[in-house]
Amino acid sequence: MARAAFNPKKVLLVHAHPDDESLFTGHVIADRAASGAEVMVFTLTRGERGRVKLEDLKPLEGNLASMGQFRSNELRNALAQLGDVKHRFAGTRAYLDSGMRLNAFGKPIKLKRTDEMSLSSVSTAVISDDIYQVLKEFKPDAVITYNRKGGFGHPDHKKAHEATAMALRRFARDSKFRTPQFWVIAEPRERFDVEVGGVKTAPKKKAALEQHASQVSIGRDTYSLVAGREFRFDTPERLRKASTRPWLWLKLVFLALWALPLGILLGFAGTLLHSVTASDDARTPIGLVVALVMTFSLAVALRLLRNSRGALYLMSFTLAGTVFWLSRPSAAGDALIIDNEAGNIWIYGSLIICAVVILFPKLRPGTWAKNASGHR
């Protein structure tokens, strides 16, 4: 990948928390600053819900104002190590670090309860307005932020991407100036267009990360965010050109309706299984038991993984429609679900199971689901 393909003279970097600028774009900032380009870092929160690594700083956790002030100072010191860099926090709204937790599969998701000023809870349009104002004032050639998935999946990173893309669309529509190129941080094993930095900029990246000692563990040649996972300072950072128009309407439709096909698939699978009996005893309804267990497992999984009943409502709706449609006799007079004991138990039992899981007051993953708060 030719490094000359990335040579902007004015760069705006949109990040969610202090230390993100050094972790994900330390090489980029140092490289552009050394080349004489104008660089601005726009940070959306002050990292108020971060989890510190130093025992002496543990009292900061839970004190949002103190943690935010401490990490803001770390950010200013880090940027001073990277070069002549402008910096600004987002607007007067003072968005808060949302924190995150891990679901049952170890994927980062929003906390169960967030206040109205948490970045992931604020309207994307509101955040994009702050970014738009900076775009109008700074007029960058290139804008850099996280990819659509938010890098490793932090909800604040996802919100930063969505708000930045929205601001760029508005800027392109309203401004007489040329629209900046939109670059996103490419994660390992993702496609990338350019690599920036290496041995030459590694000392600056190391010096910047040393200022974030509350969040990052520093070694001689490596740094780490979690124990056992080391990254080298001289590893180049990768960027990829992105579009600001990623069919957002299709994403919204998918998010709203993705559970509908699950009910149809469950309805057909359960119908095919419900009449199966054990080979040595025709009275043992093993297929019916499997079908009902499948229904219960899927219903509970939807509530646990989505932390809501919305997806379960959709699945139950299509399951009910599917089993009642399959129980209707065809023109030849036959039906897949026969009007007998097994058929009736499958139809009404599956719907009763869904109703019980829907009405059950509270479900928790329990000890098998890890929970985490803070930036990491």
Radius of gyration based on Cα positions: 26 Å
Mean pLDDT: 86
Supply the CATH class of the largest domain. Answer: Alpha Beta
Described by strand count, sense and barrel closure, the largest sheet is: 7 strands, mixed
State the shape: elongated
The class by helix and strand makeup works out as alpha/beta
Gap from first CA to last CA: 31 Å
CATH superfamily of the largest domain: LmbE-like
How many domains? The number is: 2
Low-confidence parts: 366-376
Q: What is the second-level CATH architecture of the largest domain?
A: 3-Layer(aba) Sandwich
Range of helix content: 40-55%
The number of helical segments is 10
Strand % is 5-15%
CATH topology of the largest domain: Rossmann fold
Overall strand count: 12
Strand order of the largest sheet: 3-2-1-6-7-12-8
> What is the string of SSEs from the N terminus onward?
EHEHEEEHEHEEHEEEEHHHHH
Structural notes for this entry:
- A 7-stranded mixed β-sheet has the order 3-2-1-6-7-12-8, with helices on both faces. Strands 9-10-11 form a 3-stranded antiparallel β-sheet, covered by helices on one side. Strands 4-5 form a two-stranded antiparallel sheet.
- By secondary structure, the protein is α/β, with parallel strands linked by helices.
- It has 10 helices and 12 strands.
- The chain starts with 9 loop residues before the first strand and ends in a 17-residue tail after the last helix.
